Amino acid sequence: MKKIYFCRIENEAIIMKNPLFTILVSLFLPATGTAQMHRYNPNFTLSEKNFCDTIPIEIVDGQLFLDVEMNGKTRRFLLDTGSSQGMIYQGTELEGCVELGNMISHDANNHADTVKVVALPPFRMGNLQISHYVATVLPRPAVRPKHDAIIGFDLFNRGLYAKIDTQKGVLILTDRKNTFKEEEKTGYSVKYKLKWFVPYLMVSPFINHMDEVLFDTGFRQFFTMNKGSFDTHLENDLSRLNKHLGTNIERQIEGRAKGQFSIGAFGAEKADEVAFLRLDRLKWNNFSFLDVRCITTQGASKIGSPLLNHGALIINPTKKRLTLLPYNGTDSITIGNEQMSVAFVPVNGRAVVGLIWEGSEAYQAGLRQGDIILRIDEKPIFTFQDFTTFRFIKDHRHHFLVRDKEGKEKDVWMKR
Questions:
Q1: pLDDT tens, residue by residue, 333-369
Q2: pTM for the whole thing?
Q3: What are the residues facing 228 on neighbouring strands?
Q4: Contacts with 92 (C-beta within 8 Å, 6 or more apart), sequence order
Q5: d(Cα 203, Cα 279) in Å, to the nearest integer?
């Protein structure tokens, strides 16, 4: 018996970011899949009813982690609202997984492959035990993940209400629908709708413009904008300017480049134009994030986990509402983040410059899109993993030997 499943698993698996270097590997599976051999039940069960539990969380390198107890061992899980359900990686040692079948999935770059679907063994979060939690099994990303598994947005779609408070380092999880009722009245709420079972909401990146974005705690950048959406905003804005309406989006463009920075589960995206933006403000309901640097992408527009640095967030699955409770108690905050400067991607197993901003120090030093990293400080870089595990020293000028698209080798000196 075969059954068609519609699921979307969206997770920015790896980012290493500093003023000069960014490594970005995105896993994005807007999947129309066929589960073969078995019809499986995606619903998990909870050990408690009428409960309210406080679970410790930790933000590490821009991602949200929590510890669970599984088979008598402590496991680290990534909480990822951009994933529709759980995920583990091939080779992950989680004893007791039960295979449920296979699914044909497509990643962000429309590459397809068959992946396994499993039920994880029962695990405990705080005082709550979760049983029969379903996860897909994906290829291990280019850089070893810092977690054993991913918990997706199905945790909340199951009817659980939550408050994520990174200042206190807690996730408050409950099935009582009125737990956060009074707090929601004091915050800035936006409605979301489920697309592929993950939350999409409307924000305003420019005056008189609204953009649909995915709220994705697995994503380490504050905000990115879909390139097609940006082009539409710009075209409409120019039309308004001709009629003496609106604002000038063009002046918020810091630069443009052509390149690639996203690696799907089954292959790299095609090179395309990227706009580097410096937004005057990004509005979440009536709350404003000021001076936001971001880039355009081929994937969905996203707001990522850095949002949680600026306020607690309440998830209300009944009302399909996200409520921001700003830590500063005002209606705005200045982000002032640095622009992404260089993205490195694996190409044929090697570390390659996938994208570079002309305003960056790396560009001024001579690095270009398509350059292959051959050596750093006399250490050969044979693989992408060699690059990701190289120990850069803060404020130290490193010597890069690279090979450009024409096959010529050149020396580039850059600070980390």
A1: 999 999 988 888 888 889 999 999 998 899 999 999 9
A2: 0.85
A3: none
A4: 148, 149
A5: 13
